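@channel sequence for tomorrow's demo:
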Amino acid sequence: MSIFKGEVNARYEVKEKDFILAMKAVGFKFSAKKKGSRRHFVAIGETAEFYGKTPYVYHLHGQVLDKHKQDLIAKDLRVLYDWNAQTFVLENVREE
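structure tokens (generated this afternoon):
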């Protein structure tokens, strides 16, 4: 499953914890700044060499990435890192 939609109206419920695990698996360090709604990812190691050290930050209230938030995150990741449905996939997440 990917937060990048393969077709119009392709929608899935994505839990934030699954998104965080996927970002960590790609090589990003995660922190929830000041335990608030701000989420902060910074590329580390080889990932930083490939994508640079441009951090990715978003805000979330709740534990599920709704459709609108998924679209915003997908747009940001596409612009920052040139990612798409083939390059960023949430593994082991059940489609509902």
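heads up for whoever presents: The first strand starts at residue 14 and ends at 15.
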